[in-house]
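Dear U.,

For the methods section draft, I wanted the exact inputs and outputs in one place so we can describe them consistently. I've listed the two proteins in the order they'll appear in the manuscript figures. Please don't edit the token lines directly; just add comments below if something needs changing.

First protein:
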Amino acid sequence: MATLLPKSNLYVYYDNNKHIVGFLGEMDSYIAGLFVKKEFQTLGIGTQLINHVKELKNSLTLHVYKKNSKALKVYLKNNFVIDAETFDNETDEIEFSMTWKK
């Protein structure tokens, strides 16, 4: 994890057995990654991680692939708005730039 998000602030969500089930990496108000184990998705863990970071920041930005409908739904539910739609030449995917402001 540390090599994937080396300069990020990492916020971790643990289950009752102290196993990591989700984490959010944030770097200079940019959400570099949000991951929740599949069996723990739809339980509000992503929202809790986002809300924690929202308490610390005045605004946040991120990028998400258009085809990642689950993540897009979470971000829209948490009041992020789509600012731009671009094409990622490295992955051949459409990507949204999103922001949230207090």
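Second protein (the one for the lower panel):
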Amino acid sequence: MIKLKAPATSANLGAGYDIFGLALNKPTDHMKFERAKETKIELKGKYGEKIPEEVRENSAGVVINEMTDKGVRVVIEKNIPPGSGLGSSAASAAGAAVGINKLFDLGFSRREMLEFAALGEEAAAGEKHYDNVAPCLFGDFCLVDDEVVSIEVPDFRFVVVYPNSSNLTSEARKLVPKEVEIDELKENVGFASKLLLGLYEEDLELFGQGLNDSVVVPARSKKIEGFEEARDAALGAGAFGCTLSGSGPSMIAVGRNEEKIGMAMQDALKELGISSEVYVAEPSKGVTILE
């Protein structure tokens, strides 16, 4: 039997649409794999009832079917809420790739497992993209284009707020503008540069300034109730920056007083009648085999 944990991930991170991704140590899914006569998925955990048990409809099941024709019993403890913008389907897909690779000693590299995991993402989101599965597999911060560049994250902590609602990635992608003004492009190059420089210089304030976006987040956030109020509350509480996590509705912020920032964001949402969960997360090293 193989046991592992698969982390939540935050993609896009401001101006890095489909390029930037970050692995977080909270929340985390746990998965078990063992040989069986036929492949079957069992679901547990807080959000287990919210994802499909049918193998062909589950992102983990899609990956398993691509990697082997042998039977596998899979138990998924789903603690990452689906449709939250925290990479729930990516955790299942990446966890499955690592688990099957280890269970059957297939010998695939992480880069090869990434391609399998991306197929699971495609089944869940309707389009293959790598900005969640890459950090889930490689850990820390990933820049993804034709290759994966993994960057170790300094001793940063991240405030993640999950409003108790969901947002389908496939629908959110339809809101992304097809054309961009040159001034917006210039601003976004600046934001992305600040974020990366903040990582390399271990400068949390600079990283936070780099969480801004002039293109995708403004378009998507119109459909996320409470985003502007929560972001303003975060900045008012001392956050250096705040943006959507993935396509939302979750939000991610950075600052020196994480608890104060999280409470301010939660209170702002509560005033709108929106309940939420707050995580103060650290960088994760990606999918980890426990035994």
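Candidate sentences for the figure legend, describing the second protein: The mean pLDDT is 94. The chain has two domains: 2-150+283-289, 153-281.

Thanks,
Y.
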